[in-house]
Design brief:
Layout (H helix, E strand, L loop, with lengths): L4 E3 L8 H18 L3 E3 L5 H5 L4 E5 L2 H8 L3 E9 L8 E2 L1 E6 L14 E4 L5 H15 L7 E4 L3 H10 L4 E5 H10 L7 E6 L3 E2 L3 E4 L4 H12 L3 H9 L2 E5 L7 H12 L1
Parallel strand pairs: 1-2, 1-3, 7-8, 7-9
Antiparallel strand pairs: 3-12, 4-12, 4-13, 5-11, 6-9, 6-10
Helix pairs in contact: 1-7, 1-8, 4-9
């Protein structure tokens, strides 16, 4: 059995305070599951999620359905307390610059879109799905600006270097909470279709009994874990199985065939 497990919850570390919050949640989870692990700060997330010594992390649903199925194990999915979230589902906040003249998706035709990553459900797949009915089977946006993060996409829109972006509603909620000044030039004009949220995962080599212990800690949180969750605006966790994430695959298929 692998003894030197690695962990990281990298997806929503929008601010130092939130990073500390996720570190605390992870430490409580590991302690209450009765296992030892070392926090990591991976440079490449997709490689980290495939590591044989991975114990716990959080991934996006799009890389899960396109690259990670069969290589990681679903633990539980958090339900966040932000607009655009519905239990364990979430959506993307579709934003433009205030005064851009864009008040609907159709009006964004030919404009510049900021997208955080080609493997992002919220930034790429949800936006592609949203504009597909207006694209007529061709290109909808005039230019794509690959930003590298949701925060960078917002900055591109706010500065006028991009006209539209789709931002994970949890990230948007965290930025509104932590850095409200970054949204002063931003207007929300739509939300994407919803999808299962970003799941907590266990590595593919984690034994079944340890997976069950980790999942149980999340599904039935102690007062100590509940306190850590409250800081992060997590209302609870639920177990969504592999089939639940097929909704993301169907969104991708619908966008490509529209």
């Amino acid at each position: 059995m692998i003894m030197h497990w690695k962990t990281a919850l990298p997806m929503y570390n929008v601010s130092p305070r939130l990073q500390q919050g996720y570190d605390t949640l992870l430490a409580v989870l590991i302690d209450e599951a009765g296992v030892r692990a070392t926090p990591d700060h991976p440079a490449s997330l997709i490689d980290f999620w495939r590591r044989p010594d991975l114990l716990v992390s959080q991934t996006c649903g799009y890389p899960y359905v396109t690259q990670l199925r069969g290589q990681v194990q679903l633990l539980a999915t958090p339900a966040y307390d932000f607009p655009g979230c519905d239990d364990c589902d979430y959506s993307s906040v579709i934003v433009t610059r205030t005064g851009s003249g864009i008040a609907s998706l159709e009006q964004a035709r030919g404009r510049v879109a900021a997208i955080n990553d080609a493997h992002s459900n919220s930034g790429m797949n949800a936006l592609r799905h949203a504009v597909a009915p207006f694209a007529g089977g061709g290109e909808f946006f005039g230019t794509i600006q690959w930003s590298g993060s949701h925060a960078a996409s917002l900055a591109l829109v706010a500065s006028g270097d991009a006209d539209i972006a789709a931002i994970d509603c949890v990230t948007y909620g965290y930025i509104a909470q932590e850095y409200p000044e970054r949204l002063r030039a931003i207007s929300v004009f739509d939300y994407s279709a919803s999808a299962p949220g970003l799941p907590f995962i266990a590595g593919g080599q984690v034994p079944a009994d340890l997976v069950e212990r980790l999942r149980a800690v999340l599904l039935w949180p102690s007062a100590r874990l509940r306190s850590a969750m409250d800081v992060l605006r997590i209302k609870g966790f639920d177990y969504l199985d592999d089939a639940a994430y097929d909704r993301i695959t169907r969104m991708a298929g619908a966008a490509l065939t529209a």
